[in-house]
Amino acid sequence: MTRPVGVGVIGCGNISTAYLTAARTFPILDIVALADARPEAARARAAEFGLRAVSVEDLLADPDVEIVLNLTVPRAHVEVDLAALAAGKHVYSEKPLGVSLAEGRRLAAAAGAKGLRLGCAPDTFLGGAHQAARALIDDGAIGRPVGGSAFFMCPGHERWHPDPGFYYLAGGGPMLDMGPYYITDLVNLLGPVEQVIGVATRTRAERTIASEPLRGTRIPVEVATHVTGVLRFAGGAAVSVTLSFDVVGHKHVPLEIYGESGSLIVPDPNGFGGAVEIAEVDATWREVPNRRPYADANYRSLGLADMAQAIRSGRPHRASGALALHALEVMEAFQASSDSGRAIDVASRPERPAPMPASLARGELD
User: Fold this and answer.
1) Do residues 259 and 142 touch, judged by C-beta distance below 8 A?
2) pTM of the full predicted structure?
């Protein structure tokens, strides 16, 4: 058996539960310890999962920790990642890679200088539904892709999140919060983006929390909350995108891809599974049977596990820093386009991640 890779988790907030639950699926992962700037949060999560809580400093010094899994809030991602790299650890971070392209580039340069791996969420594009959609495109089931649409719209996270303030500060907003799922999956499906045209608006300067325990608290809004535009892909397709925290209701599906001879409906890129539908020349939609792995649950450690397996085998990992940096460049370009009134060229050209083998069993990686 391949020797497991030791993982230390920094950040024990809401998302850590999903990661730690899914990590049990993968024998390649050995969760060594948990840490948080709030020691009580680390102790509570450690007790919940039967793990060890330590200080951030002790976690970074632990020789059994090979990868630091960074689950802090977006504004802390780069600071924590740089500390982990300085300690000689590989890094896998929650999305986004940074709150600006400059931050992301600094982080990527630091990882490269150290010869360490940099990985980043989202990993949902590795899920069975999105891999099935990619296989259909790659196999020519809809012909040459010519366009598509991507929609995420809701009234705002202050309606449900217990502490939603960070969603409206630098690193938040619908683009940097939800955009990584959509942009990353579109790159998985269609390849890299070469140009962005965008409009970004902010409808309110502050919002009121409607969830407990902070119901009634007013929070500032520093970022655009309705972002729309068009992505032009290097392969030629043009995809319309709208991401919003200002929409009460809509009837758009999350993703559609249009080809010369057919169209695909791709399920929510914030999940691993769901129905993939195809319409061919008669325009009749049908669901595509799908037996691919990692489509039946929330596997929000799959990208981390893939990176751990890649460290042991020496191959590239799929949820890579280069892919996350490209997504960050694309997302930042929407605001730049809106501010300047012109199209923004995207300089980075990451390789499409290798497809996941269709024959893997649960817990297996290639």
Assistant:
1) yes
2) 0.95
